[in-house]
């Protein structure tokens, strides 16, 4: 899809436009690609026989030498590449090459930035640092950013909107919050993280109503309450895990259905009975 958007592949049908102008593929363009877009692919397009600094300056043709120096220093610092600036790209690791490819795409901020799993070889603090910068610059420059990822936490963390595709078909396209809490089907629910289905038979009271908008419940929607009167469901704890942020509790409803819920403390033990309230979104 990204190759079609960028003009690296010809379309069998349909069309892609930017600012009302068609994006043409390699059958029409001698040099494929679009001048108003930048594309960070999994192939790490870098100039192997040039230094890291030269790779960045290569994307700044037409600017003054002073600006090239200033901009390259900014990007070298942003991507933790300053110590490698004089090394030829061919000598770098895959993670370092990935950072050089990102730097090249950000040298002159485009109208559209296409990112194909751009952080696969980067640690989380560096990912957050880079994408925080991208979001700030994108807002300032009115740039559209398309991020392709197979990691749900990456989509949830960075995207304003999420589009879920399967076999070339669009399953759901909504605000990220809505895709997470109101997935269209079980497939989307599973893709975005842990969930369970709450049945009417699991409810403590027959008077309790389920939300019309939500069929799939996330563990963080469950809140521990003291009394049965304030609860929606009653569960028995079957297992406990510590995940760094707190504790994950695996439990069963009165009908034997499995659910998960979180807590910051470990005051609850295995086989304990817990009352839970569901916070609907």
Could you explain how this protein is built, in words?
With 281 residues, the chain is of the alpha+beta class. The chain folds into 2 domains: 2-181, 3-Layer(aba) Sandwich (Rossmann fold), CATH 3.40.50.300; 196-278, Nucleic acid-binding proteins (OB fold (Dihydrolipoamide Acetyltransferase, E2P), Beta Barrel). 27% of the residues lie in helices and 24% in strands. The strands form 5 sheets. Strands 10-14-11-12-13 form a 5-stranded antiparallel β-sheet, with no helix packed on it. It has a 3-stranded parallel β-sheet with strand order 3-4-5. Strands 1-2 form a two-stranded antiparallel sheet. β1 and β2 form a beta hairpin. The longest helix is centred in the middle third of the chain and has 18 residues, at 124-141. The model has no long low-confidence stretch (mean pLDDT 92).
SSE layout and pairing:
Layout: H1 2-6, E1 17-18, E2 21-22, E3 37-40, H2 52-57, H3 65-78, H4 94-106, E4 112-116, H5 124-141, E5 144-148, H6 152-158, E6 161-166, E7 169-175, H7 176-181, H8 186-191, E8 196-197, E9 216-217, E10 222-225, E11 233-242, E12 247-253, E13 258-263, E14 273-278
Parallel strand pairs: 3-4, 4-5
Antiparallel strand pairs: 1-2, 6-7, 8-9, 10-14, 11-12, 11-14, 12-13
Keywords:
single chain, 281 residues, alpha+beta, Rossmann fold, OB fold (Dihydrolipoamide Acetyltransferase, E2P), five-stranded antiparallel beta sheet, three-stranded parallel beta sheet, 27% helix, 24% strand, elongated
Average pLDDT reading: 92
Number of helices: 8
What is the CATH domain class of the largest domain?
Alpha Beta
> Care to count the β-strands?
14
Quaternary organisation of the protein chains: single chain
How many domains, as an integer?
2
The CATH fourth-level homologous superfamily of the largest domain? P-loop containing nucleotide triphosphate hydrolases
What is the element string, with H for helices and E for strands?
HEEEHHHEHEHEEHHEEEEEEE
What is the CATH topology classification name of the largest domain?
Rossmann fold
User: What is Rg?
Assistant: 24 Å
As a percent range, the share of helical residues equals 25-40%
CATH architecture grouping of the largest domain: 3-Layer(aba) Sandwich
Label the structural class.
alpha+beta
The first-to-last residue Cα distance is 32 Å
Q: Could you name the ranges where pLDDT drops below 50 across 5 or more consecutive residues?
A: none
Major β-sheet profile: 5 strands, antiparallel
The best one-word shape is elongated
Proportion of strand residues: 15-25%
């Amino acid at each position: 899809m990204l190759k079609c958007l960028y003009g690296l592949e010809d379309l069998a049908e349909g069309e892609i436009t930017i600012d009302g102008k068609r994006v043409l593929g390699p059958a029409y363009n001698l040099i494929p690609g679009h001048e108003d877009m930048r594309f960070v692919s999994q192939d790490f397009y870098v100039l192997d026989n040039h230094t890291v600094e030269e790779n960045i300056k290569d994307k700044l043709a037409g600017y003054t030498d002073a600006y090239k120096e200033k901009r390259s220093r900014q990007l070298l610092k942003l991507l933790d590449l300053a110590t490698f600036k004089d090394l030829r790209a061919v000598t770098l690791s895959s993670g370092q090459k990935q950072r050089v490819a990102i730097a090249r795409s950000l040298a002159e901020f485009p109208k559209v930035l296409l990112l194909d799993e751009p952080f696969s070889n980067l640690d989380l603090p560096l990912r957050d640092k880079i994408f925080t910068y991208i979001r700030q610059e994108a807002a300032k420059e009115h740039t559209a950013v398309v991020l392709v990822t197979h990691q749900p936490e990456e989509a949830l963390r960075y995207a304003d909107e999420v589009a879920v595709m399967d076999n070339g078909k669009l399953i759901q396209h909504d605000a990220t919050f809505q895709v997470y809490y109101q997935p269209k089907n079980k497939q989307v629910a599973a893709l975005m993280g842990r969930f369970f289905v709450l049945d009417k038979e699991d409810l403590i009271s027959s008077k309790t109503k389920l939300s019309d908008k939500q069929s799939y419940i996330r563990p963080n929607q469950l809140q521990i309450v003291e009394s049965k009167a304030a609860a929606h469901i009653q569960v028995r704890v079957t297992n406990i895990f510590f995940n760094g942020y707190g504790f994950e509790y695996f439990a069963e409803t009165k009908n034997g259905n499995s659910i998960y819920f979180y807590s910051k403390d470990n005051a609850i033990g295995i086989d304990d009975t817990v009352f839970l309230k569901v916070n609907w979104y």
